[in-house]
Amino acid sequence: MSYQAPLQDMTFVLTELCGLAALSELPGLEDATPETVEAILEEAGKFAGQVLAPLNRSGDEAGLGFDNGRVTVPEGWQEAYDQIVEMGWNSPAASPEHGGMGLPFAVNAAIQEMFNGANTAFQLCPLLTQGAIEAIAHYASADLQESYLPKLVTGEWTGTMNLTEPQAGSDLAAIRSKAVPEGDHYRVSGQKIFITYGEHEMTENIIHLVLARLPDAPAGVKGISLFVVPKFMVNADGSLGARNDVRCVSIEHKLGIHASPTCTLSFGDDGGAIGYLVGEPNQGLTYMFAMMNSARLGVGLQGIGIAEHAGQHAAAYAAERKQGGRPGSAGSVAIVEHPDVKRMLGLIKARTQAARVLAYRAAAASDIASRSTDADIAAKAQRRLDLLIPVVKGWSTEMGNVSASLGVQVHGGMGYIEETGAAQHFRDARITTIYEGTTGIQALDLIGRKISRDKGYAMAELLADMDDTAARLDAASGDGVNWAGYAKSLTEATAALRAATNWIVDQAASHSELPQASACAMLDLAGVCLGTWAMADSVLAASARIAAGDSAAFLHSKLRIAEFYRTQIAAQAPALLALVTLGADAVMALDAADLGVSA
Q1: Bridging pattern class, strands 273-278 and 185-196
Q2: What pLDDT sits at residue 328?
Q3: d(C-alpha 281, C-alpha 224), whole Å
Q4: Which of 38, 206, 238, 313 is the one with CA 20 to 30 A from 349?
Q5: Is the dihedral of CA 532, 536, 539, 541 positive or negative?
Q6: Across the strands, what pairs with 251?
Q7: Chain centroid to CA 140
Q8: Helix (H, G, I), strand (E, B), or coil: what is residue 448?
Q9: Which residues of the chain have pLDDT under 70?
């Protein structure tokens, strides 16, 4: 199960499409020059391919051990994690003030894609820790930051996110966990489920971020507070004290990511776990969204990473497997020569490349939003980030599932056999559309908080950028590129996305359920259309480099993959627009009996 980080494409996207040079001019990012970033990515790629990828299959087969609250990880996990800490890969974007590299979020996105692509089950641990770092760094007191951030940033300690409860699921308003004040701390009690890396022994401490209710909290989501609850208490001098009242009572037996412990944690069985309030009371959900947005971007990168790995795996098999003939060739040929296999591999590669651009652009928007000294520019970047997050999370993970499925299909019957490894990508990808908010939740977020709430303002800004790219395509010239075709495809995609946005805004005021019925179609349309924009910008950048004398085969391949996307994927935009605007009535017309649910 080899993996090779797509460094050429990652570097191309960062430099040509995400403005890496401009990012390195932001305050605090001056050292992130394109040359430095290229060297960092090369080292990260080596670690992904040489250390993490070889553990992917063995970890899946070995799974986890669980005995009386103790979780043991597969062989090689501890050594790989120790290397993560030693090399500083745990949280590359964290502030140097706390021991991080201080890299742009956009560069960190590339690193996370590599590590997720090589071994998703392993990388889930740093992913959750990075989210905990975000929440504590933005909202916790100076004392809590001083106590917890340095070792979270280095990876000496890991972090978790504790939202879900058995009776609540995605409905956080139904959370019952309690936090009772006691001096300078609180006693936390309750049970949390689906806690990724909630228990393990790779580090000496685990820092849980827990949502719970204060005794006088109002009902619903407005009454949720956020608490830091360490596995081991931290003394004033930074040393570890007694074990806190939190324990793992079970781990889940899952379809995929077998080597990632998904835990049920019980807080307060012996009087209450000691916790510390983050920020203000009853603001926990607001604070947790910082962690959730980081995690949602990270999960989107999981979808992209798995798609990349599944595509590499399938392409390698297609190059080796000989079956059937083709006109002009004697005997059997490698199946990669067959048109339908080319189609499947092309779908994987084209959608993966488009999703990569969107994810990295979201991360770059985060850099600008958090560091620009121009308030208007920062605010626009924040709107762009907020708008892109549900698309990156929802569309990229659905794409990852389809790509992993196509990878199995390319293998044919052998793909259904575990020994080939193709099935693991399929199994691991399945969770990505579920955790950190299902695709349906991402779609509702897109049409509600991100489109209807501002009446399409942030989307209008993005559509204006798409119009600018179309104008550049109209003015472009040069051999070997169907400029008119690209301009037409992008113009149609922009028009479809604009029409769908207007429909969502118009309907939201008087028929709120209709947009909800079209939400997932809208998410798919947004992904396809924004992917068209991403690939069009890729064509402009690649063609400019070719015209300047760069003859790299990679650039010519970019043009062919973009043309494939234009004809095979962008062409879906009109049909998806019809699904958004015309399909909702059919959804709403269904009753329970139609769906096989008896009264």
Answers
A1: antiparallel
A2: 78
A3: 8
A4: 38
A5: negative
A6: 263
A7: 25
A8: helix
A9: 1, 599
Supply the DSSP string of 56-70, one letter for each residue: HHHHHHH--EEETTE
Contact between residue 397 and residue 256 where contact means Cβ atoms under 8 Å apart: no
Asked if 432 and 425 count as a contact pair (C-beta separation under 8 A), the reply is no
Measured distance between the N- and C-terminal CA atoms of the chain, rounded to whole angstroms: 50
Contact 44, 105 (CB under 8 A): no
- Give residue 514's identity as a one-letter amino acid code: L
Supply the DSSP string of 142-163, one letter for each residue: HHHHHHHHHHHHHTSEEEEEE-
Per residue in 234-293, pLDDT (tens digit) is 999 999 999 999 999 999 999 999 999 999 999 999 999 999 999 999 999 888 877 788
Cα torsion 331, 336, 338, 340 to 10°: value is: 160
Please answer whether residues 411 and 422 qualify as being in contact, where contact means their C-beta atoms are separated by less than 8 angstroms.
yes
Q: Which of 132, 386, 401 is nearest to 256 (CA)?
A: 401
Q: Measure the CA–CA gap between 576 and 9, rounded to whole angstroms.
A: 28
Helix axes 519-547, 439-447, angle to 10 degrees: 80
Strands 205-212 and 157-162: parallel
Q: How far is residue 448's CA from residue 45's CA, in Å, rounded to a whole number?
A: 38
User: What backbone torsions phi and psi does residue 274 show, to the nearest 5 degrees?
Assistant: -75, 125
- Rounding to the nearest 10 degrees, give the CA dihedral for residues 247, 235, 87, 123: 20
120-139 and 53-62 are packed helices; what angle lies between their axes, rounded to 10 degrees?
100
- Residue 287 corresponds to which tokens in the numbers above? 């604070």
Alpha helices in 163-227 (DSSP H): none
Which residues are catalytic, by number?
Answer: 436
Answer whether 276's CB lies under 8 Å from 144's CB.
yes
Amino acid type, 482: N
Structure token pair of residue 247: 């324990």
Contacts for 162 with CB less than 8 Å, ≥ 6 apart: 192, 195, 198, 208, 209, 210, 211, 229, 265
The rounded distance, in Å, linking the Cα atoms of 578 and 194 is 37
Residue 275 pairs with which residues in a beta bridge?
186
- The span from the CA of 277 to the CA of 184, in Å, is 9
CB 580 within 8 A of CB 517: no
User: CA 179, CA 166: separation in Å to the nearest integer?
Assistant: 18
Spatial distance between the Cα atoms of 14 and 38, rounded to a whole number of angstroms: 10
Query: Chain centroid to CA 341: how far?
Result: 28
The model scores a pTM over 0.90 = yes
Residue 248: strand, helix, or coil: strand
**Which residues of 94-172 form beta strands (DSSP E)?**
157-162
**Structural tokens at position 231:** 């596995």
pLDDT given at position 1: 64
What six digits make up the tokens of 328? 């002009």
Token pair listed for 572? 């879906």
The structure tokens listed for 546 are 């070719």
Axis crossing angle, helix 284-320 with helix 375-411, rounded to the nearest 10? 40
| Residue where the block lists tokens 């949280």 | 91
